UniProtKB/TrEMBL annotation:
<keyword id="KW-1133">Transmembrane helix</keyword>
<keyword id="KW-0378">Hydrolase</keyword>
<keyword id="KW-0067">ATP-binding</keyword>
<dbReference type="GO" id="GO:0009181">
    <property type="term" value="P:purine ribonucleoside diphosphate catabolic process"/>
</dbReference>
<protein>
    <submittedName>
        <fullName>Ectonucleoside triphosphate diphosphohydrolase 2</fullName>
    </submittedName>
</protein>
<keyword id="KW-0460">Magnesium</keyword>
<keyword id="KW-0325">Glycoprotein</keyword>
<keyword id="KW-0106">Calcium</keyword>
<feature type="binding site">
    <location>
        <begin position="199"/>
        <end position="203"/>
    </location>
    <ligand>
        <name>ATP</name>
    </ligand>
</feature>
<dbReference type="GO" id="GO:0005604">
    <property type="term" value="C:basement membrane"/>
</dbReference>
<dbReference type="GO" id="GO:0030168">
    <property type="term" value="P:platelet activation"/>
</dbReference>
<dbReference type="GO" id="GO:0005524">
    <property type="term" value="F:ATP binding"/>
</dbReference>
<keyword id="KW-0472">Membrane</keyword>
<dbReference type="InterPro" id="IPR000407">
    <property type="entry name" value="GDA1_CD39_NTPase"/>
</dbReference>
<keyword id="KW-0547">Nucleotide-binding</keyword>
<feature type="active site" description="Proton acceptor">
    <location>
        <position position="160"/>
    </location>
</feature>
<dbReference type="GO" id="GO:0005886">
    <property type="term" value="C:plasma membrane"/>
</dbReference>
Length: 496
């Protein structure tokens, strides 16, 4: 069996290195270690994933058998800037769980990584010493455990974008798949673009044939013997939480109310919180009292809200032949896309709670206007028990709509090729279901599992994929439709 084609379990990242514009991703050869632990340190929280896959070649499939995960209590590690050792301490509960979940004799052979994303990139911008202290504290804690610690570091936006793309396409078996004939082959069905909306940054990544006018956004990848040229860009401060902070700061600056919040909603905001982020620097008054609280009410004004959101994007100058926004090079969006994280939550809210269709850009815009036009009482009546971020869905929907249409340049046709899915993070590459569905479970209706014709027969992988991404049924149908729509060339069995 040849080296690159013998992997069915999710590719395990052994390491990465960015040199120039080449990103080298190492994937484990077969046979692989049996367990791995990844800590995905996001801006608002950290999750731990333990994955496991059989090392035996017996069945030649290498399906991930089971996993566990753990949510670290409290905020993201970047929230411990004033108390770095607290960041390390916060991980202890999950690491203790890892000691129990991984058999003792496997501890020493189990790789352990921590990858931090945009929350730590921001902290490194404002207070590099604090970000170093946090990473040092976290490293100190992680090395207290018997696992094979491979490092704790801040991922670049480019890495985050590319890992998300690799993950999504791996899970969709766009790189390799296991055919009915019992052999690996390269499906050659093309890849899907990936769009991720996190708390502090947003990434867009897709394969392109357009010339790279800005080498910083071009990544060459070699995966399973194939060459891929990928465009990627990460917009720091364009994650959902930071966007909301920036809109709040703009509302304070230009209005005495918040046009994106519902009428009847009002709250007190601490100025220190609004202006402490480097993302709100542009709106920061020259002097302000950081311990003062300001009261702000919503006005349910879709048009003013749209204007406020528009202010996040600048189209005034572009040093390249074409740009997305803020002078950032971007070739035309090409092919189909998967949009996940907060993209999914936003669109899912519009569909599920508001009952609004979002199949076209025009519908998405109308849905955003509709949400923004609701009073607080109307919203609460519609969405009982969802109060936490309810007032922010208008701004979130307006932002997603403008980012996709004006920002990235999706037109109706391109938008038709975007599917919204729950979760594909770079670290979530390892986010496998709790237990491998048995054949009966998988076949039983109502368990969320069904075979997807055309995606292949790599044993249980397609079923796991559907569960992993927790697709509602219509999403799975559109996924199926999508996989059928993709250009397909006759697949060639690989040399084994
Ligand atoms: C491999 O195949 C054997 C016999 O068909 C089966 O009992 C076993 O559960 C399989 N292992 C995996 C990991 O699927
Ligand atoms: C912080 O940013 C600087 C400049 O980009 C970089 O050299 C450094 O490695 C970063 N620190 C960490 C801990 O990643
Ligand atoms: C800042 O605000 C706090 C809380 O309202 C107040 O106690 C304090 O006097 C203010 N400081 C200044 C310099 O205005
Ligand atoms: C907002 O809602 C009111 C009724 O509640 C309706 O008359 C108005 O046309 C709506 N405006 C928009 C822009 O949808």
């Amino acid at each position: 069996c040849s080296y690159q084609l013998c992997i069915c379990a999710p590719p395990i990242l052994l390491g990465w290195q960015t040199g120039g514009t080449q990103l080298h991703v190492w994937l484990t050869p077969f046979p692989s270690p049996q367990y791995g632990i990844v800590l995905d340190a996001g801006s608002s929280h950290t999750s731990m994933f333990i994955y496991k896959w059989p090392a035996d070649k017996e069945n030649d499939t290498g399906i991930v058998g089971q996993h566990s995960s753990c949510d670290v209590p409290g905020g993201g590690i970047s929230s411990y800037a004033d108390n770095p050792s607290g960041a390390g301490q916060s991980l202890v509960g999950c690491l203790e769980q890892a000691l129990r979940d991984v058999p003792k004799e496997r501890h020493a052979g189990t790789p352990l990584y921590l990858g931090a994303t945009a929350g730590m990139r921001l902290l490194n911008l404002t207070n590099p010493e604090a970000s170093t202290s946090v990473l040092t504290a976290v490293t100190h804690t992680l090395t207290q455990y018997p696992f094979d610690f491979r490092g704790a570091r801040i991922l670049s936006g480019q890495e985050e974008g590319v890992f998300g793309w690799v993950t999504a396409n791996y899970l969709l078996e766009n790189f390799i798949k296991y055919g009915w004939v019992g052999r690996w082959f390269r499906p050659r069905k093309g890849t899907l673009g990936a769009m991720d909306l996190g708390g502090a940054s947003t990434q867009i990544t897709f394969e392109t044939t357009s010339p790279a006018e800005d080498r910083a956004s071009e990544v060459q990848l070699r995966l399973y013997g194939q060459h891929y040229r990928v465009y990627t860009h990460s917009f720091l401060c364009y994650g959902r939480d930071q966007v909301l902070q920036r809109l709040l700061a703009s509302a304070l600056q230009t209005h005495s109310f918040h046009p994106c919040w519902p009428r009847g909603f009002s709250t007190h905001v601490l100025l220190g919180d609004v202006y402490q982020s480097p993302c709100t620097v542009a709106q920061r008054p020259q002097t302000f009292n950081s311990s003062a609280w300001v009261s702000l009410s919503g006005s349910s004004d879709p048009h003013l809200c749209r204007d406020l959101v528009s202010g996040l994007f600048s189209f005034s100058s572009c040093p390249f032949s074409r740009c997305s926004f803020n002078g950032v090079f971007q070739p035309p969006v090409a092919g189909n896309f998967i949009a996940f994280s907060a993209f999914f939550y936003t669109v899912d809210f519009l569909r599920t709670f508001m009952g609004l269709p979002v199949a076209t850009l025009q519908q998405l815009e109308a849905a955003a206007v509709n949400v923004c036009n609701q009073t607080w009482a109307q919203l609460q009546a519609r969405v009982p028990g969802q109060q936490a971020h309810l007032a922010d869905y208008c701004a979130g929907a307006m932002f997603v709509q403008q980012l996709l249409s004006r920002g990235y340049g999706f037109d109706e046709r391109a938008f038709g090729g975007v599917i919204f899915q729950k979760k594909v993070g770079w670290g979530l590459m390892f986010n496998m279901p709790k237990s491998r569905p048995t054949d009966t479970e998988a076949a039983a209706p109502g368990h969320g599992g069904w075979a997807v014709p055309g995606i292949g027969s790599c044993a249980h992988l397609p079923l796991q994929l559907l569960r992993l991404l927790e697709l509602p049924r219509r999403e799975a149908d559109s996924l199926r439709a999508l996989s059928v729509r993709l250009p397909r060339k006759p697949s060639q069995p690989a040399k084994v």
